[in-house]
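Support request, priority: normal
Reporter: lab tech (M.K.)
Component: structure prediction queue

Hi team, I submitted a job for ABC transporter permease from Lacibacterium aquatile yesterday, and the status page still shows it as pending. I've pasted the exact input below so you can check whether something in the sequence is tripping the parser. The sequence length should be 315 residues. Please let me know if I need to resubmit or if it's stuck on your end.
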Amino acid sequence: MSSFLLRRLSSLILTLAVTSLAIFLVMEVLPGDPAAIMLGLEARPDTLAALRTELGLDRGLFERYFSWVGGLLTGDFGVSYTYRVPVGQLIGERMVVTVPLALMAICVAAGIGVPLGVLAASARGKLTDQAATAFSQLGIAVPNFWIGLVLILVFALSLGWFPAGSFPGWSSSIPGALQALVLPAIALGLPQAAILTRVTRSSVLEVLTEDFIRTARAKGLSRRTVLRRHALRNALIPVITILGLQLATLIGGTILIENVFALAGLGRLIYQAMTQRDLIVVESVAMLMAALVITVNFLVDLAYGWLDPRLRAGR
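Reply from support: The job had stalled in the queue. We restarted it manually and it finished. Here are the results:
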């Protein structure tokens, strides 16, 4: 197990290093001068030069890269060009919206997708299976922002059960904050639930054809017991893979939903920073999201090792 963990840690560190370099270089080749955007087109050259020096934009490319990476390692994300406050403060204020939203969305996806996929597999060819397949196809085809707009029209404007947008904050009212995240979490989670339904159904059906399943049935175990004790655990490996990728996608892909529901999260922050050419914010938020994706994949690998002992042995 230790060698398995060491291999995964080495891969994690190398991936993070390559990702940080790629993000920095991509952002640096984008057109536009942050100092010129902040001061306007009529700014004097000496004023532009002074602001570029203040922001550190006059330093060499790799000097700025190593300074940025060193700051990330010590928790210093720099100071926003636009807001003139520490980037870490901006990220902290927005993460309290995005992370709970992503976790609620993945709970919606798992709570609907996994049971529905297992149910469809156990009733293959029947009406339940056909209904689950139709839900899966519809959920994959419909974009999440459209689902969000429909939810706003029905449950916010017509019924008035939930707010149409904005986030009141956790300090004002925890129930109110959770209520504000319900509709965006459903809008984010339903398409992922559709994908998870299809993956779970296929995985369970594949496991049900294995010899050990027939052996368990031959011993007199009921179909439900075989499904719960033997088939489900072996079918979980691809399901966990999809769940890990979905969680990473939800954390990094909330830009549209956060704009639809006017939520001040990481997705909206990176959108605003890109329009304002606030490079340090874009780079830091993008790196944070990438690190979350890579870390989630690392945890999925560890879950693989727990579910399948052959992986721990390197076979």
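The chain has two domains: 2-74, 94-312. The CA atoms of residues 156 and 162 lie 5 Å apart. Let us know if anything else looks off. Ticket resolved.
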